[in-house]
Structures are given as C-alpha cells and as structure tokens.
Amino acid sequence: MARVSYRVRPETAVLTRGFDPELSVGSARPPVYRSSTFVFPSPEAAERAFAVALGKVRPESGYRPDLIYARLNHPNAEILEDQLVPLERGAKAAAVFNSGMAAIFTVLISFLERDGTMIYTQPLYGGTQHLIHQIIEPLGFRAIAVRAGDMTALTETIAHTDNLSLVLIETPSNPTLTMTDIGQAAAALRANSRRAMLAIDNTLLGPTFQHPLSHGADLVIYSATKFLGGFSDLLAGAVIAADPDLIQSLTGIRALLGNILQADECWILDSRLSTVALRMNRQSKNAQRIAEQLAKHPRVRRVLYPSLFEDHGQIRIRDAQTDYPGSLMSLDIEGGKTAAFEFLRRLRIAKNAVSMGGVETLACHPATTTHSELSAEEMAAAGITDSLVRISIGTEHWRDLLEEFTRALDGL
Ligand SMILES: Cc1ncc(COP(=O)(O)O)c(C=O)c1O
After folding, report:
1. Which atom of ligand 1 approaches the CA of 237 most closely?
2. Mutate which of 225, 232, 372, 392 for ligand 1 pocket (most atoms within 8 A of beta carbon)
3. What is the pLDDT along the chain (412 residues), one digit of tens a residue?
4. CA–CA separation, 225 and 229 (whole Å)
5. Nearest residue by C-alpha to atom 14 in ligand 1
6. Would strands 328-333 and 300-304 be described as parallel, antiparallel, or unpaired?
7. Architecture in CATH for domain 10-274
8. 223: Cβ below 6 Å to ligand 1?
9. β-strand partners of 391
10. Is the peptide bond before 172 cis (omega within 30 degrees of 0)?
11. Could you tell me if 216 and 184 are in contact, meaning their C-beta atoms sit under 8 angstroms apart?
C-alpha cells in the first residue's frame, strides 16, 4: 500500500499515520506486538540504538533507531503516539503513559529543577493535588496554589516566584469547570527572565474543543482514560508537545520509571482515536441541552457549565480559548449532602461512578469521592461544596437523561 506522504487533515491523519500495513503482512489494523525485547540486526546496530537512547549521540534526521526493550519503547506505543499528534493542534511529538497520573507525575519529576517551585491552579483533580502534597512537596519542591481563573493572582505569582520551574493549569477545572487563561499565563511566563514550563491538563475539553499549544503552552497532558479512551474500559495517559526535545526528556524518565503504556492498551486506545471528535461533539451537544434545562429546576441553585457562565472574566476566557462547552457539568443542589446523595440514589440510566468522558453517563459527589483528599480549607478555596454533584454526560439520548435528572430532582 502506498503511504500517504502529503499533508492531510487530522481526521484523515489519525487513520493513515503511524502504521504501515506493509510492515505487518498487509494487516489492515496494527497487530499487537507483545514482545518485551527486540532483536538487533547486528551488534553495531545495538551499540548505536543504546547510544541514541542514552543521548550520547544525536540521531540524524530520518534515522529511526532500532527498538531495544519495551520499557523504553515498543511498536504499539510508537503507532499510538504518531496518531495522537495530528489530534493536537500544533503538536509534533507525544508520549504515552499507563495512566493520567503517571503522565502528570513524569512531567513534574522531569521538569522540576533542584530547589524548584511549581505553581498550580486550584482546584485540580483531587488525585493530582494529593500527588503534589504526598510526593512532590516531601521531595523538597515548593508548590504554590492559585485560585483557578484568578488571572491577576496567577500573573503576580509567576512574576514574584523565585526558582519557578513549572506552572500546571487544569482548565476547565475538575469539578467546578472554572477556566484559566492559557495565553495570559504563557505571556506572564515569557515576561519572566527565567523560562519555566507551562503544562496544561487538557483532559476535560481536549483534544477536540481546546488547543493549548496554540495559546503558548509547552506541554499538554491527558488522562486518556477519559475522552480519548471513551468507553471507561482502560487506563492511560499522554503528554503532547510542539517541541520533540521535551517529549524526549519525558521518554527518558519514562524508561527509568517503567510507566509506558503497555501494548494491548495502546492498541485499544489507538482504535478509539478516530471517533474521539464524533463522541465529544455528541456528548457536548447532549450536555448543553441538559445543563440549560436543569438550570431552571427549582431544586438546582446553579449549574456549573461553560455555556451558563455569568462571570465576565470566565466568559471572555471561554470564548477566546474553547470551541464548545463539553460534557462535564456540576449541579449545585438545594439541600446539601443529603439531597445530593438522594439525587444520586435515584439515578438509573446514569451510573453513580467516578471518572468521565465515557459514552455512558456517570455522576458522583466530588466532596466525598474524587476530591475527598482535599483539606477543608482547600475544599473551600476550590468552591467544592457538599451540595455539588458532578455529571459526565454520555452518548445516550439527551431527552432520556433530562427526564431522569428531572424526575430525580422532583422527588427530592
Ligand atoms: C483532570 C484529570 N486529570 C488527571 C486525572 C488522572 O487520570 P488517571 O485516572 O487516568 O490516572 C483525572 C482523573 O480523574 C482527571 O480528572
């Protein structure tokens, strides 16, 4: 089969890049290469592959080093990484990990310099915040929290922080859907003499509705467990960048940590990429219809959802930075934790489970589950209350979901 050598659009690239059937007995789909180790054509090739992998020599352009050992790299990771690149506007390279947390940890441990400081927006996914407190801070790094969306505080903190190595922004934030301006954060970092890394957790809206590299981010991080995977049946993470050297630094650390995504998971995830935009578009349309209706229900104080923003700053960021509102929303329900739990108990189509981004609708109570590691002060600062229920809308018919949520609210 002749390979597609000319430029094509992302929807086409994701189905034509990264895999050459001629290398796999004409198989139309990539096989799963489960080998842990790879045979070298000669001892010289082995020597060269190790020299390149260890950074002792820089490969000339076009040189594809021989594979060595699956902890460093393997064919299914290479195929998946090649196919992730066209989905992220402005990207040139990607690295895959065995979970979103593995991707985040590898970014932090790779780019935080000795005595370095990181700034992060709050709220973050509870696990990420826990990782910062349980591992990153005890290792001696400083971590400063800034309220998500507070651009004055973020710009000033960037300007006045010594030894700043990295800024981690989750936008929109999980579970409050607060947006932080990526372009403004990138400009604040550029104005600083010492260039720190800007990493964006793009799990909630990417890769379809938000493109951080176009706004000046260095690294885009995903829990690929969510929308990229799309069916709540695998764990995966990815980091994507415009600068291949940044990805090479990460894959060097990944080889030491052993947290590369395994071949079977790469193969499954790779088969999901061509439908990510289809699924996300449908899920976002469903969610927008449902959110706008639920906002009128007398038992709902507020629906946290991008198309319902009232704050001018948030509206400005939304319009400048995102294409569609996505499928995650949080309901602030009248009646506190008791009402929130009762609402969850009444759901039948939607399942009471953590996670998001799958084709099935999931709902949970962040204060007692995904964000329960946060201290009371962090919870208050993040705006996560007992009356908040987070919902990830799937691909079911939106009317069935709306009827179910309305019934559950009516009965409270
Ligand atoms: C925004 C965000 N980032 C990262 C993660 C961690 O991803 P994983 O569960 O794949 O490790 C999650 C998980 O819920 C998340 O919501």
Report:
1. 10
2. 225
3. 346 778 889 889 888 888 888 888 899 899 999 999 999 999 999 999 999 888 888 877 777 778 999 999 999 999 999 999 999 999 999 999 999 999 999 999 999 999 999 999 999 999 999 999 999 999 999 999 999 999 999 999 999 999 999 999 999 999 999 999 999 999 999 998 668 999 999 999 999 999 999 999 999 999 999 999 999 999 999 999 999 999 999 999 999 999 999 999 999 999 999 999 999 999 999 999 999 999 999 999 999 999 999 999 999 999 999 999 999 999 999 999 999 999 999 999 999 999 999 999 999 999 999 999 999 999 999 999 999 999 999 999 999 999 999 999 999 9
4. 5
5. 355
6. antiparallel
7. 3-Layer(aba) Sandwich (3.40)
8. yes
9. 329, 363
10. yes
11. no
CB distance 174 to ligand 1 below 6 Å: yes
- Residue written as tokens 């949520």? 405
Residue nearest to atom 9 of ligand 1 (CA): 100
Domain range summary for the chain, segments of one domain joined by +: 10-274, 277-410
Fold classification of 277-410 (topology level): Aspartate Aminotransferase, domain 1 (3.90.1150)
Ligand 1 lined by 129 (C-beta under 6 Å): no
**Ligand 1 center–CA 411 separation, angstroms:** 32
Residue with tokens 């609708």: 361
C-alpha of residue 101 to centroid of ligand 1, in Å:
6
Both structure tokens of 1: 């089969």
> Hey, whose CA ends up nearest to atom 6 of ligand 1?
100
Atom of ligand 1 nearest to the CA of 236: 10
Calpha distance 81→88 (Å, rounded): 11
235 lines ligand 1 (CB under 6 A): yes
